[in-house]
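Subject: Sodium/potassium-transporting ATPase subunit beta-2

B.,
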Amino acid sequence: MTLDPQEPKYKMDSSRIGSNPGLGFRPSPPYYATQSAVIWFNVSRNETVEHWVTDLNRFLEPYRHSSLKPCSGNETATPGKACLFPVPTGNHSCTSERQFGYLEGKPCVLIKLNKIYGWIPESYQSPPVNLRRQLKSSFLKNRVYITCEGANPSDRDNIGETTFYPHQSIPGLYYPFVNQKNYLAPFVFVQFVDISRGVLVKVECAAWAENIDHNKQDKTGGVHFELLVD
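Prediction pasted inline below.
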Protein backbone atom coordinates (compact mmCIF):
# COMPACT_ATOMS: atom_id res chain seq x y z
CA MET A 1 0.00 0.00 0.00
CA THR A 2 1.31 3.45 -0.94
CA LEU A 3 0.83 6.18 1.62
CA ASP A 4 -0.60 9.50 0.48
CA PRO A 5 2.07 12.14 1.26
CA GLN A 6 -0.72 14.66 1.84
CA GLU A 7 -2.43 12.49 4.43
CA PRO A 8 -0.89 12.05 7.90
CA LYS A 9 -0.35 8.51 9.15
CA TYR A 10 -2.15 9.30 12.40
CA LYS A 11 -5.35 11.32 12.30
CA MET A 12 -7.99 12.65 14.69
CA ASP A 13 -8.06 10.66 17.97
CA SER A 14 -5.00 8.60 17.00
CA SER A 15 -2.89 11.73 16.47
CA ARG A 16 -1.08 13.80 19.08
CA ILE A 17 -3.43 16.76 18.62
CA GLY A 18 -6.58 14.62 18.78
CA SER A 19 -9.98 15.47 17.34
CA ASN A 20 -10.95 18.40 19.57
CA PRO A 21 -9.74 21.68 18.05
CA GLY A 22 -8.33 24.53 20.05
CA LEU A 23 -8.29 28.20 19.13
CA GLY A 24 -5.45 30.52 18.25
CA PHE A 25 -5.30 34.30 18.27
CA ARG A 26 -3.50 37.10 16.48
CA PRO A 27 -1.73 39.44 16.92
CA SER A 28 0.99 37.40 18.60
CA PRO A 29 3.20 38.88 21.33
CA PRO A 30 6.70 40.02 20.28
CA TYR A 31 9.43 37.38 19.92
CA TYR A 32 10.98 38.40 23.25
CA ALA A 33 7.69 37.75 25.07
CA THR A 34 6.63 34.44 23.52
CA GLN A 35 5.44 33.08 26.87
CA SER A 36 3.13 36.05 27.31
CA ALA A 37 -0.48 36.29 26.18
CA VAL A 38 -0.78 40.03 26.91
CA ILE A 39 -1.70 42.54 24.21
CA TRP A 40 -0.66 45.90 25.65
CA PHE A 41 -0.58 49.30 23.98
CA ASN A 42 -1.04 53.00 24.65
CA VAL A 43 -3.40 54.77 22.24
CA SER A 44 -1.36 57.98 22.43
CA ARG A 45 1.94 56.24 21.59
CA ASN A 46 2.06 54.95 18.02
CA GLU A 47 5.17 52.88 18.66
CA THR A 48 3.25 50.66 21.11
CA VAL A 49 0.61 49.97 18.46
CA GLU A 50 2.99 49.25 15.57
CA HIS A 51 3.87 45.64 16.48
CA TRP A 52 0.24 44.52 16.81
CA VAL A 53 -0.84 46.07 13.52
CA THR A 54 2.21 44.71 11.69
CA ASP A 55 1.65 41.21 13.04
CA LEU A 56 -1.98 41.19 11.91
CA ASN A 57 -1.05 42.47 8.45
CA ARG A 58 1.65 39.80 8.16
CA PHE A 59 -0.83 37.07 9.06
CA LEU A 60 -3.42 38.36 6.56
CA GLU A 61 -0.99 38.76 3.65
CA PRO A 62 -1.55 35.24 2.18
CA TYR A 63 -5.33 35.79 2.30
CA ARG A 64 -5.05 39.02 0.32
CA HIS A 65 -3.04 37.37 -2.46
CA SER A 66 -4.67 33.95 -2.49
CA SER A 67 -5.38 32.23 -5.82
CA LEU A 68 -8.33 30.36 -4.28
CA LYS A 69 -11.88 31.02 -5.42
CA PRO A 70 -14.91 31.61 -3.16
CA CYS A 71 -17.32 28.73 -2.69
CA SER A 72 -20.95 29.55 -3.37
CA GLY A 73 -24.32 27.91 -2.88
CA ASN A 74 -23.91 24.39 -1.53
CA GLU A 75 -20.21 24.17 -2.40
CA THR A 76 -17.85 23.06 0.35
CA ALA A 77 -14.17 22.27 0.70
CA THR A 78 -13.19 18.96 -0.90
CA PRO A 79 -9.96 16.92 -0.84
CA GLY A 80 -8.94 18.62 -4.08
CA LYS A 81 -10.20 22.13 -3.45
CA ALA A 82 -10.21 24.66 -0.64
CA CYS A 83 -12.54 27.65 -0.47
CA LEU A 84 -11.26 31.21 -0.37
CA PHE A 85 -11.83 32.94 2.95
CA PRO A 86 -12.15 36.67 2.20
CA VAL A 87 -10.58 39.20 4.55
CA PRO A 88 -13.43 41.15 6.19
CA THR A 89 -13.98 44.60 4.71
CA GLY A 90 -16.57 47.29 5.22
CA ASN A 91 -17.34 50.21 7.48
CA HIS A 92 -15.71 48.91 10.66
CA SER A 93 -12.37 49.23 12.46
CA CYS A 94 -11.06 45.68 11.93
CA THR A 95 -9.20 46.63 8.75
CA SER A 96 -5.62 47.51 7.94
CA GLU A 97 -6.72 51.00 6.86
CA ARG A 98 -8.13 51.61 10.35
CA GLN A 99 -5.12 50.06 12.13
CA PHE A 100 -7.45 47.29 13.35
CA GLY A 101 -8.90 49.68 15.91
CA TYR A 102 -5.75 49.97 18.02
CA LEU A 103 -5.23 53.71 17.61
CA GLU A 104 -8.89 54.17 18.58
CA GLY A 105 -8.49 52.11 21.76
CA LYS A 106 -10.93 49.57 20.30
CA PRO A 107 -8.63 46.66 19.43
CA CYS A 108 -9.56 43.84 17.07
CA VAL A 109 -8.23 40.36 17.81
CA LEU A 110 -8.32 37.62 15.19
CA ILE A 111 -9.60 34.24 16.42
CA LYS A 112 -9.09 31.07 14.38
CA LEU A 113 -9.69 27.36 14.83
CA ASN A 114 -6.53 25.29 14.85
CA LYS A 115 -6.36 22.93 11.88
CA ILE A 116 -7.10 19.24 12.45
CA TYR A 117 -6.84 16.94 9.46
CA GLY A 118 -10.23 15.58 8.43
CA TRP A 119 -12.23 17.32 11.15
CA ILE A 120 -15.75 18.48 10.23
CA PRO A 121 -17.86 20.54 12.65
CA GLU A 122 -21.16 19.06 13.79
CA SER A 123 -23.64 21.92 14.01
CA TYR A 124 -26.02 22.41 16.91
CA GLN A 125 -29.67 22.04 16.00
CA SER A 126 -30.35 24.70 18.64
CA PRO A 127 -27.78 26.62 20.69
CA PRO A 128 -26.99 25.51 24.26
CA VAL A 129 -27.76 27.98 27.06
CA ASN A 130 -24.19 29.24 27.50
CA LEU A 131 -23.94 30.01 23.79
CA ARG A 132 -27.44 31.46 23.50
CA ARG A 133 -26.77 34.13 26.13
CA GLN A 134 -23.77 35.38 24.12
CA LEU A 135 -25.31 35.39 20.65
CA LYS A 136 -25.18 38.74 18.86
CA SER A 137 -27.67 37.78 16.14
CA SER A 138 -30.04 34.99 15.07
CA PHE A 139 -28.62 31.47 15.35
CA LEU A 140 -27.57 29.87 12.05
CA LYS A 141 -26.95 26.16 11.49
CA ASN A 142 -23.86 24.58 9.91
CA ARG A 143 -21.54 27.02 11.62
CA VAL A 144 -18.90 27.07 14.35
CA TYR A 145 -19.75 29.91 16.72
CA ILE A 146 -17.14 31.97 18.56
CA THR A 147 -17.75 33.72 21.88
CA CYS A 148 -15.43 35.91 23.96
CA GLU A 149 -16.02 37.06 27.52
CA GLY A 150 -14.13 38.08 30.65
CA ALA A 151 -12.52 35.20 32.52
CA ASN A 152 -13.64 36.41 35.97
CA PRO A 153 -16.43 38.67 37.30
CA SER A 154 -14.09 41.68 37.40
CA ASP A 155 -12.99 40.98 33.82
CA ARG A 156 -16.61 40.77 32.71
CA ASP A 157 -17.20 44.17 34.32
CA ASN A 158 -14.29 45.68 32.37
CA ILE A 159 -14.45 43.94 29.00
CA GLY A 160 -17.30 46.09 27.69
CA GLU A 161 -19.13 45.43 24.44
CA THR A 162 -17.74 43.04 21.82
CA THR A 163 -18.52 42.97 18.11
CA PHE A 164 -17.62 40.24 15.61
CA TYR A 165 -16.60 40.54 11.93
CA PRO A 166 -17.57 39.36 9.41
CA HIS A 167 -19.90 37.31 11.64
CA GLN A 168 -19.83 35.64 15.05
CA SER A 169 -19.47 32.26 13.37
CA ILE A 170 -17.44 30.35 10.79
CA PRO A 171 -19.42 28.61 8.01
CA GLY A 172 -18.98 24.86 7.79
CA LEU A 173 -18.19 25.06 4.06
CA TYR A 174 -14.49 25.60 4.88
CA TYR A 175 -14.19 22.07 6.27
CA PRO A 176 -12.69 19.53 6.19
CA PHE A 177 -9.04 20.56 6.09
CA VAL A 178 -7.14 17.75 4.33
CA ASN A 179 -3.92 19.54 3.35
CA GLN A 180 -5.50 21.13 0.27
CA LYS A 181 -3.10 23.26 -1.72
CA ASN A 182 -3.05 26.88 -0.50
CA TYR A 183 -5.61 26.16 2.25
CA LEU A 184 -6.11 29.14 4.57
CA ALA A 185 -7.90 28.76 7.89
CA PRO A 186 -11.13 30.75 8.33
CA PHE A 187 -11.32 33.21 11.23
CA VAL A 188 -13.36 35.90 12.92
CA PHE A 189 -12.36 39.28 14.29
CA VAL A 190 -13.62 40.20 17.73
CA GLN A 191 -13.50 43.91 18.51
CA PHE A 192 -13.45 45.21 22.07
CA VAL A 193 -15.47 48.36 21.53
CA ASP A 194 -15.38 49.99 24.97
CA ILE A 195 -12.91 48.02 27.05
CA SER A 196 -11.86 49.74 30.30
CA ARG A 197 -8.61 51.70 30.09
CA GLY A 198 -5.67 51.03 32.40
CA VAL A 199 -7.02 47.66 33.56
CA LEU A 200 -5.64 44.23 32.64
CA VAL A 201 -8.60 42.27 31.28
CA LYS A 202 -8.39 38.49 30.99
CA VAL A 203 -10.34 37.23 27.99
CA GLU A 204 -11.56 33.72 27.26
CA CYS A 205 -12.82 32.86 23.79
CA ALA A 206 -14.54 29.57 22.95
CA ALA A 207 -15.57 27.70 19.81
CA TRP A 208 -18.99 26.05 19.75
CA ALA A 209 -20.13 22.92 17.90
CA GLU A 210 -21.54 19.54 18.96
CA ASN A 211 -18.11 17.93 18.58
CA ILE A 212 -16.09 20.61 20.39
CA ASP A 213 -15.46 20.09 24.10
CA HIS A 214 -14.16 22.87 26.35
CA ASN A 215 -11.22 21.92 28.56
CA LYS A 216 -9.07 24.74 29.95
CA GLN A 217 -6.42 22.35 31.26
CA ASP A 218 -5.93 20.71 27.86
CA LYS A 219 -6.38 24.06 26.08
CA THR A 220 -9.03 22.62 23.78
CA GLY A 221 -12.14 24.34 22.55
CA GLY A 222 -10.91 27.81 23.46
CA VAL A 223 -8.09 30.27 23.97
CA HIS A 224 -7.04 32.74 26.68
CA PHE A 225 -5.33 36.10 26.24
CA GLU A 226 -5.14 39.39 28.11
CA LEU A 227 -5.71 42.98 27.04
CA LEU A 228 -4.28 46.13 28.59
CA VAL A 229 -5.27 49.37 26.89
CA ASP A 230 -3.71 52.57 28.27
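The chain has three helices and nine strands.

T.
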